[in-house]
Amino acid sequence: MNKIKFTYLMMGAMLFTTACSSDLNQIPSVNPQSESLTDFTNVLNAAYYYQATAVTPMAVMGDFRADNAYMFEAPYSDFDAFSNGAIITQDAEFFRPFYSGLYKSILSANIVITKSTNASQKAEAKFLRALAYFKLVQVFGPVTINLSDAPSTSDTSILARRSVADVYALIISDLIDAKTTLGATKSTTGRATKYAAQGLLGKVYMTRANPGDITLAKTELSTVVSGASAAGFNLIAGASYATIFTVDNNAETLFATQLSSSISDEYSGSDFWSWFSGANTKSLNPIDGSLTAAFAASGSADVRKAVVIKVATPTKSNKYGTAGANADWIELRLADVILLYAEALNEEADNAAARTLALVELNKIRTRAGLANTTAATQVALRAAIANDRRLELAFEGQRWFDLLRYNKVTPGATQAALASTAIPTPSFSNNYYLFPIPSSEISASFNVITQNPGY
């Protein structure tokens, strides 16, 4: 019988290069049987390491797909729905390293979850598995679920895509387990903590958006916001705002994927920064005019503008400074959680008491940015204010496209006014293209058990 040459199976038995437990950037080597291991530290390190394969595509999808950035070079211009006004075609193989790398992270996590006797290691692995599946389900929708440390190499049925509901159920279960076991105190080595798991869980609830999820999200996010300081997490002061993106493992970062210019990921290096800085031919003049206009409307006092936008030729992002390929990719930071908490408070109930609490949280972010408190006085106005500050605060962190989907602001025939406060080309495309194409090589390798998303 033919054996499945599927990318997450090729890592089915692993031992990794010797490394200290604090080094999550070690390149794993493959092949010895996991059954022979007694110390799973380096297997866990591999689960961290392979998250790096998602960094560049999440940056591309999160900002270039949305209204924050322009893409110029084909076929990458087809990602840019807001600039093109339509989606024509996309290179599915762009997603192959993203897809395969995350399944390698998942398989590494599965080995730790199944084989390790260390409760903290198991919890970290569950956090990383949840993070990987959260990226996969947002990007592709239904995906293969693998919970085995040694999946069959001959049973193709295990590759069948599972429903979005099933994927979210797994993510939530893993994060609940992780938050229960992980310590709250900020890690000095960048490992997952209780508040990273709890903050991500709140974000997952806000994204899934089932009935009752806003209340569930509010509970998780509230715990992070109220407990962060005692655990070593704090908003960085406005005067030092730029250091959030140039100083690794800073006090505001709840969790980041660690990167290094000396280690290439499966895109031949994590070059997300070059797409934003105008150093890449795919995006020579990356800043979308509507983002520039949004900062202009925010006012000259906004300390974020000089960090996010460097007015030069070309106009580009200055967010990652000179750190370049050594800049870690922030997966979740405290400001993100605070703004999600404000959103949950505002959406759970349309009353003055809820708005008052939401305003307190939103104004924490505005005060840090050097801005006056918002004047939003209704649920609708506060919803728009929170969305606008999320755009300004999290620009070029891979968030905007997924926020627009949460807000239901990317819809076929949507008006420009519904998408932005300034005139931009109106995206007009089938809702098939809310998801991205499964890599064709993965479909072939599964003997077509894995199916393509509609429209591709």
TrEMBL record:
Recorded superkingdom: Bacteria
CDD domains linked to this entry: SusD
One GO CC term on file: cell outer membrane
Major localization listed first in the record, in broad terms: membrane
Domain SusD-like N-terminal per the UniProt entry, residue ranges: 35-206
Keyword Translocase: no
InterPro entries membership: SusD-like_N (IPR033985), SusD_RagB_dom (IPR012944), TPR-like_helical_dom_sf (IPR011990)
Keyword terms, alphabetized: Cell outer membrane, Membrane, Signal
Keyword Signal listed: yes
Location of the protein in the cell: Cell outer membrane
Sequence ranges assigned to domain RagB/SusD in this UniProt record: 314-456
Family in the record: Belongs to the SusD family.
Protein name listed in UniProt: Outer membrane starch-binding protein
Organism of derivation: Frigoriflavimonas asaccharolytica
